Amino acid sequence: MNTNIAHPPAGRQRRRHSPEFRASVIQACLQPGVSIAAVALANGLNANMVRKWIIEERKRSVPAQAHPSRPVSVPDHGSPPAPAFVPLALPAPPATSGAIQIELRRGEATVSVSWPLSAAAECAQLLRELLR
């Protein structure tokens, strides 16, 4: 059994990033409609590491006394925020006394049906039965 611990290759070292570089990456990630993964990829970074930087930055910017037990979450900037609900007053549809006109043709035979709009559900049921 080999118990040797594998060491990283001699030419490979852990990279260190300056605080200015981290701040610029974090700012780029916080722009609306920007993907954290895309910013990380464009800068040759791991997206999980960038998310960790954002969480650490938020912890530094929020005072510890304000929310000591509240977890800090990273918002998903991949989709735009949902707009607030705005109710609209729509005019009532005009009351029409029209009819549903249906014309069915099969070979030489033609059937025309005129159905009142007030009984549209019954018309739909008849059509379902006919078209089976």
Automatic annotation (TrEMBL):
Spell out where the chain crosses the membrane. none
Q: Which NCBIfam families does its entry note?
A: IS66_ISRel24_TnpA (NF047595)
Q: What SUPFAM superfamilies does UniProt report for this protein, alphabetically?
A: Homeodomain-like (SSF46689)
| Species | Acidovorax temperans
Q: What protein does this entry describe?
A: Transposase
Q: Where is this region: Disordered?
A: 60-85
For molecular function, the Gene Ontology terms on record are: DNA binding; transposase activity
- InterPro entries reported in the protein's UniProt record: Homeodomain-like_sf, Transposase_8
Gene Ontology BP annotations: DNA transposition
